[in-house]
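Encoded backbone
================
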Amino acid sequence: MQNTIIIGIAGGSASGKTTVAARLKESFTNDLILICHDSYYLSHNDLPYEERCKINYDHPNAFDTERMISDIHQLKKGIPIQCPIYDYSIHNRSKEVIQISPAKVIVIEGILIFENESLRNLMDIKVFVDTDADIRFIRRMLRDINERARSIDSIVEQYTTTVKPMHDKFVEPSKRYADLIIPRGGQNEVAISMLINRVKSILET
């Protein structure tokens, strides 16, 4: 496809990436598709639930990033993809897939999308959503309890053993690749407006 714009939105867990992506969707409606890196978590059908709970889901090796890169190349060629679906409640990939058709604007969202150089190089605009750690933790806890059927104990255990260490090791250092850093996430109206106007100007050229 011509004039396809690929926007990467990275940032820590529960930093507000999805909110920023939703604001873009409001502005570009049918011209925009969203692909989440989380959808490309590797499947672990060979492991029981108890073992799947112990996996480090915040490490780059937890993702099938090569498939995501391949899918984005297909979309750029105007070819629909069969995107995986991840089920957080069972810590495993669903048996279902969803067809995603090409669009002028492709938004890629995830904590580690800037970590992989090949994926990063596909992006025309790289955005890092920067939110204080305590705010991110509270949001994550509320989200995982209400939307992902997690217990408080499991959330705290996962955060202290993998989420925070991996954030410090992989996510935070990847901020240096960003073209635009948005503090406070979806609450930053000025930065979001600047991003929307930039995308509009590219589409009009």
